[in-house]
């Protein structure tokens, strides 16, 4: 992984954690697939 992709990942996580609805959906998720579906938006 190069440094640019690492920065992109950090930026995507920062964006995710600013979205309370998606954070709550991840916490409430009952399967790995449900979590992956949320993460794909970022």
From TrEMBL:
It comes from the Bacteria. Gene3D superfamilies: Mannitol-specific EII, Chain A. Pfam families: PTS_EIIA_2 (PF00359). PROSITE patterns: PTS_EIIA_TYPE_2 (PS51094). Residues 1-42 form the PTS EIIA type-2 domain. This is PTS systemIIA component.
């Amino acid at each position: 992984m190069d440094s640019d992709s690492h920065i992109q990942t950090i930026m995507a996580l920062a964006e995710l954690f600013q979205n309370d609805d998606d954070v709550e959906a991840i916490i409430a998720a009952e399967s790995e697939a449900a979590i992956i579906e949320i993460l794909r938006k970022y």
